[in-house]
Each structure stands twice: as structure tokens, then as C-alpha cells.
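User: Teach me something about this protein's shape.
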Amino acid sequence: MADQLAKLLNQIIPDEKILSDLWEIVDDGNNKVELNDTWIEIPNKIQIDIVTKAYFLESFPNIGFGVYKVLLALGGFNQDLHDFHSAGICFSTMFYDEEIKLISIDFHKEFR
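Assistant: First, the predicted structure itself:
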């Protein structure tokens, strides 16, 4: 069943849409994003790994901050033996509504 859910999730929110939405935010002429009150550059040809995609089933209407959540590793995903995961540059968490519209994006150094 998990394989079927993963397949459906990939159909609903394909990788291409996620990456397109990311670059729409990042590629604003200077390719910089705010990370902990500091502006950092995101190179155009950077490796971007989609780490997780999730769907949240909410028991009450309008209690969450989006229905879908995507975690990206900009600069590539690094996983060590002790589960201290890192990204080459930073992570990005993207939240989508039920119509698959991006409603929020956050850039952060820690894996969460």
C-alpha cells in the first residue's frame, strides 16, 4: 500500500512542479535567499534533492499550514551513519494547499 500512496503523491505533486516553484522564488535576478537573517546565493546549476514529500490528513478544517509538505536539500543531501543529515547549502521546506499551490517556503540549515 505504501508504494501506491507514494505513486499517487508523485502524481499529485510531481518533482518538476516542485523544482519549478523553487526556481520561481529563487531566480529573482540575484539568486539569493534569506537563511537565518543572512542572504545566501543559490547557484543555477546546483544539485537539488527532494528528500521527502508528505500529505497531512487534518481532522479539523483549517488547523494546519498546508496539506502537502516537501523537504528539499539544496546542494545535495548528505546522510551520515548517525543520522545527522545535512544539505550542501541548506534545506528548503515548501508547503502546498489542497489545490497544489505553493503557500509558503522556508530556508533553513538544520534537517527538520
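Now, about its shape. Residues 2-108 form one domain. The CA atoms of residues 87 and 93 lie 12 Å apart. If you'd like, I can walk through any region in more detail.
User: That's plenty for now, thanks!
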